[in-house]
Amino acid sequence: MGEYAIGKYLCDMSELNGEKLHPAKEGIRVVRHGIGLNFCLAIVKGVSGILGNSYALIADAIESASDVLSSLVVLVGLRTAAKPPDDDHPYGHGKAEPVAAVIVSLFLLAASIFITVEAVTHIHTPHKGPEAWTLIVIAAVVFGKELIFRYVMRTANDISSTAVKGEAQHHRADAITSVAAFVGIGIALIGGEGYEAADDWAALLAAAFVGWNAYSVFRPAFSELMDEALPIEVVQEIKKVALTVPGVMEIEKCYVRKMGFEFFVDIHVVVHAEKTVREGHDIAHQVKDAIMAANSSVYNVLTHVEPHEM
Asked: What residue ranges define each of the domains in the chain, with the CATH number in brackets?
């Protein structure tokens, strides 16, 4: 099974006041935690970078600050995606979630470009080397960010959220940029005079990684917005469920698309040509009920009945 295999789309919905919680609620919770963490880290790294003469650490602070802004976008996207369908949005508001992920990728790209420009400027400008104590700050940041990445990514996989996965990648990017800063500062300290620019080269390396991360967030989000076909395993599992319904002879077509946190299924089932309209109607409803019972992520099923050609 691939990343989009059906098992990862089955969410355990918690009960609250007798109603199922939308998976966006869990996403909102972890995003809020991330906003608070990144805000604190941006201040700590920014102050440490200025006092410790480390542009790599300042670049790291910029990355954390951009994470705060993008996290706010994710938060808005998740809140919107959790809204139920209405007259203007009969298919729900799920697309707000990948839209938020696309905006996040643009924040990452902007941060990458800004860090690159500043790093190149510092490389060509003589400056004082970084302070040794900045290594302690960075080591603590790397450890903390990696733990947060694992926590957020686990939640993202549980609720199958493109935006929350992007949020997790932000934390991983922050950890990697911090590692690059650690290496650059280490080289600058060990090399001494003449190696001050190693810190800036580390920032440049971090910018490249942030840029790649922007693409990794953008690609799946854009695919979801374009209703790209899901892997065959997902469709086959739904077909298998439909074929268990009495009266269904075969499946002619089956299309599945993801709208935020839910699936919308269009399926054509073949029944005996002698079935009455009422019997075909009943079979169609049974197919819908069976699919939705088997997969809690399926929001709706549109079933079309085809006569079996003798």
From this structure: 6-225 (1.20.1510.10), 232-307 (3.30.70.1350)
